[in-house]
Design a protein that fits this description.
Elements: H1 3-36, E1 38-53, E2 60-72, E3 75-79, H2 92-101, E4 107-113, E5 116-121, H3 128-159
Antiparallel strand pairs: 1-2, 1-4, 2-3, 4-5
Length: about 160
Protein backbone atom coordinates (compact mmCIF):
# COMPACT_ATOMS: atom_id res chain seq x y z
CA UNK A 1 0.00 0.00 0.00
CA UNK A 2 1.48 3.31 -1.02
CA UNK A 3 1.05 6.36 1.13
CA UNK A 4 -0.06 8.38 -1.89
CA UNK A 5 -2.84 5.90 -2.75
CA UNK A 6 -4.01 5.82 0.84
CA UNK A 7 -4.08 9.62 1.00
CA UNK A 8 -6.01 9.78 -2.28
CA UNK A 9 -8.62 7.30 -1.08
CA UNK A 10 -9.05 9.11 2.23
CA UNK A 11 -9.38 12.45 0.42
CA UNK A 12 -12.00 10.94 -1.90
CA UNK A 13 -14.03 9.67 1.05
CA UNK A 14 -13.79 13.07 2.75
CA UNK A 15 -14.91 14.96 -0.37
CA UNK A 16 -17.83 12.61 -0.99
CA UNK A 17 -18.70 12.70 2.72
CA UNK A 18 -18.86 16.50 2.64
CA UNK A 19 -21.05 16.31 -0.47
CA UNK A 20 -23.40 13.85 1.27
CA UNK A 21 -23.58 16.11 4.34
CA UNK A 22 -24.45 19.08 2.11
CA UNK A 23 -27.09 17.01 0.31
CA UNK A 24 -28.64 15.98 3.63
CA UNK A 25 -28.76 19.66 4.64
CA UNK A 26 -30.55 20.49 1.38
CA UNK A 27 -32.97 17.56 1.85
CA UNK A 28 -33.74 18.87 5.35
CA UNK A 29 -34.52 22.27 3.82
CA UNK A 30 -36.99 20.69 1.39
CA UNK A 31 -38.70 18.70 4.13
CA UNK A 32 -39.06 21.72 6.43
CA UNK A 33 -40.38 23.92 3.63
CA UNK A 34 -42.92 21.31 2.55
CA UNK A 35 -44.21 21.00 6.13
CA UNK A 36 -45.08 24.69 6.45
CA UNK A 37 -46.76 25.33 3.12
CA UNK A 38 -50.52 25.20 2.67
CA UNK A 39 -52.56 23.24 0.15
CA UNK A 40 -55.21 24.81 -2.05
CA UNK A 41 -57.51 23.55 -4.76
CA UNK A 42 -56.47 24.71 -8.17
CA UNK A 43 -57.19 24.25 -11.84
CA UNK A 44 -54.83 23.95 -14.79
CA UNK A 45 -55.54 26.81 -17.20
CA UNK A 46 -53.00 26.01 -19.94
CA UNK A 47 -50.06 23.69 -20.64
CA UNK A 48 -47.62 23.16 -23.44
CA UNK A 49 -44.35 21.37 -24.13
CA UNK A 50 -41.61 23.86 -24.97
CA UNK A 51 -38.48 23.05 -26.94
CA UNK A 52 -35.56 25.46 -26.78
CA UNK A 53 -31.96 25.40 -27.89
CA UNK A 54 -29.19 25.60 -25.30
CA UNK A 55 -27.38 28.91 -25.97
CA UNK A 56 -23.85 27.48 -25.71
CA UNK A 57 -24.11 23.85 -26.82
CA UNK A 58 -27.02 24.03 -29.23
CA UNK A 59 -28.59 20.98 -27.57
CA UNK A 60 -32.36 20.73 -27.76
CA UNK A 61 -33.95 21.25 -24.32
CA UNK A 62 -37.52 20.42 -23.37
CA UNK A 63 -39.73 21.68 -20.61
CA UNK A 64 -43.37 21.99 -19.65
CA UNK A 65 -44.94 25.40 -19.32
CA UNK A 66 -48.02 25.26 -17.10
CA UNK A 67 -50.43 27.95 -15.94
CA UNK A 68 -52.84 27.39 -13.07
CA UNK A 69 -55.11 29.30 -10.75
CA UNK A 70 -55.79 28.65 -7.07
CA UNK A 71 -57.42 30.16 -4.01
CA UNK A 72 -55.29 31.26 -1.06
CA UNK A 73 -56.42 33.38 1.84
CA UNK A 74 -59.70 34.22 0.12
CA UNK A 75 -58.04 35.50 -3.06
CA UNK A 76 -57.47 33.99 -6.49
CA UNK A 77 -53.86 33.65 -7.57
CA UNK A 78 -52.16 32.49 -10.76
CA UNK A 79 -49.03 30.37 -10.88
CA UNK A 80 -46.78 28.65 -13.37
CA UNK A 81 -44.13 26.80 -11.36
CA UNK A 82 -44.19 23.00 -11.22
CA UNK A 83 -41.43 22.40 -8.65
CA UNK A 84 -38.77 24.71 -7.16
CA UNK A 85 -36.04 22.76 -8.96
CA UNK A 86 -37.81 22.04 -12.23
CA UNK A 87 -35.55 22.74 -15.19
CA UNK A 88 -35.53 22.15 -18.92
CA UNK A 89 -33.48 19.11 -19.96
CA UNK A 90 -32.81 17.07 -23.09
CA UNK A 91 -35.06 14.24 -21.81
CA UNK A 92 -38.19 14.83 -23.89
CA UNK A 93 -40.01 11.70 -22.63
CA UNK A 94 -39.58 12.86 -19.01
CA UNK A 95 -41.27 16.19 -19.79
CA UNK A 96 -44.03 14.54 -21.83
CA UNK A 97 -44.92 12.49 -18.72
CA UNK A 98 -45.17 15.71 -16.71
CA UNK A 99 -47.34 17.22 -19.43
CA UNK A 100 -49.73 14.23 -19.17
CA UNK A 101 -50.15 14.87 -15.42
CA UNK A 102 -51.17 18.49 -15.90
CA UNK A 103 -53.71 18.63 -18.71
CA UNK A 104 -55.76 21.78 -19.24
CA UNK A 105 -58.88 21.89 -17.06
CA UNK A 106 -57.61 19.33 -14.57
CA UNK A 107 -58.24 19.96 -10.87
CA UNK A 108 -54.95 19.97 -8.95
CA UNK A 109 -53.60 20.58 -5.48
CA UNK A 110 -51.42 23.67 -5.33
CA UNK A 111 -48.92 24.16 -2.53
CA UNK A 112 -48.34 27.78 -1.60
CA UNK A 113 -46.33 29.78 0.89
CA UNK A 114 -48.74 31.22 3.49
CA UNK A 115 -46.36 34.15 4.06
CA UNK A 116 -46.35 34.92 0.33
CA UNK A 117 -49.32 33.26 -1.41
CA UNK A 118 -48.02 34.25 -4.85
CA UNK A 119 -45.19 31.74 -4.34
CA UNK A 120 -46.72 28.41 -5.34
CA UNK A 121 -45.85 25.06 -6.87
CA UNK A 122 -47.72 22.00 -8.05
CA UNK A 123 -45.13 19.72 -6.45
CA UNK A 124 -42.93 20.09 -3.42
CA UNK A 125 -40.60 17.62 -1.86
CA UNK A 126 -37.19 16.20 -2.37
CA UNK A 127 -36.01 15.98 -5.98
CA UNK A 128 -35.53 12.35 -7.00
CA UNK A 129 -32.16 13.10 -8.55
CA UNK A 130 -30.86 14.39 -5.20
CA UNK A 131 -31.82 11.13 -3.49
CA UNK A 132 -30.18 9.16 -6.29
CA UNK A 133 -26.95 11.14 -5.94
CA UNK A 134 -26.88 10.62 -2.17
CA UNK A 135 -27.40 6.87 -2.63
CA UNK A 136 -24.64 6.72 -5.24
CA UNK A 137 -22.28 8.68 -2.99
CA UNK A 138 -22.96 6.38 -0.04
CA UNK A 139 -22.26 3.31 -2.20
CA UNK A 140 -19.01 4.94 -3.36
CA UNK A 141 -17.97 5.71 0.21
CA UNK A 142 -18.69 2.14 1.31
CA UNK A 143 -16.67 0.74 -1.60
CA UNK A 144 -13.69 2.99 -0.83
CA UNK A 145 -13.97 2.12 2.86
CA UNK A 146 -13.88 -1.60 1.99
CA UNK A 147 -10.76 -1.03 -0.14
CA UNK A 148 -9.13 0.90 2.71
CA UNK A 149 -9.89 -1.88 5.20
CA UNK A 150 -8.41 -4.45 2.82
CA UNK A 151 -5.31 -2.32 2.24
CA UNK A 152 -4.76 -1.80 5.96
CA UNK A 153 -5.21 -5.54 6.59
CA UNK A 154 -2.63 -6.37 3.90
CA UNK A 155 -0.24 -3.76 5.27
CA UNK A 156 -0.62 -5.10 8.81
CA UNK A 157 -0.10 -8.66 7.58
CA UNK A 158 3.05 -7.71 5.66
CA UNK A 159 4.53 -6.03 8.73
CA UNK A 160 4.35 -9.15 10.89
Amino acid sequence: MTTQLLATLIAAVLVVGIAVALAIYVIRHYVLRSATWRKASGRIVATRLDADEHPRTGARLFGVHVSYEYQGGGRTYHGHRIHPDYIYTNREAFHREILKRYQEGKQVTVLYNPKNPTEAYLELGIPKVLLELVALAVVFMLAVFAVLVEMVAQYAGAGQ
